[in-house]
Amino acid sequence: MKINVQQSDWLYQESDKKLPSSNRAAGELWKSCLIGLIIGVLSAGLVLAVITVVFIQVKYKSSVLRVLYPSNVAVLFSDSQNGKTTATTTTSTTSTTTTSTTSTTTTSTTSTTTTTTTTTTTTTTTTTTTTTSTTSTTTTSTTTTSTTTTAVVLPAQCSSYTTITDSTRNIGYSSSFVCDSGVYGSSGVWVRFLSPAGTSIPTATPGISLCGTNAPGWYNGPYPSTAGSTTTGTVCYDWAGNTCNWSNSIQITYCSTFYVFLLINSPVCNLRYCTV
User: Does the keyword Membrane belong to this entry (predicted)?
Assistant: First the structure.
């Protein structure tokens, strides 16, 4: 900032009239200088404020700023001797050139269109079903068996016998003690055992003191299996640790549905045929 201040010359005329006091003249001069200084400072502050505002507005832009700082300063001079005040005003014209740079931003928008082509492939599967028909021929052979039934003529003992139902002869009886030494004779008697005695003579020793006697008799051999046939076998009597301590022969006939026995007297007393 440049401030041009023109001061007028003080014209002092020598005359008979004098200032009342030299100190008063100096005070008036100092007051005038102080007023001028204040005005100059205010003007400079105003210009600085204008420059600051302009600078902020054009920040981040390219600009050329030329400033001629204005000055409009008035200086008052007072002549206390003549009683008049002279004011000198200097006017400066400030020209401000502001170059404004306008930034134009061009935004280019590219629109991309994506076309999706969907290809659908249709697969046709043809299933051929082959049905194989199998015909099974089943040949049924019918064999006719001619069975000739020959009537078996059963022996006389199958229809003529003595029935024994004495439950004391059964293998489970152990109370009484009797014997067969004088019951059937030496030639024998055909008998058929029926319940509750049993239906046959056991094929294994029952043990001693059973079947209502001391030494029970059991059949030691096979039974006949053909209807009308007769088998001769041996009956043993179990005693004193010997399963066949005594024995005698008997005959057995198979009468198709039951058995008949040709029994003779036992060898000694306290021997008895057991039934089961």
Answer: yes
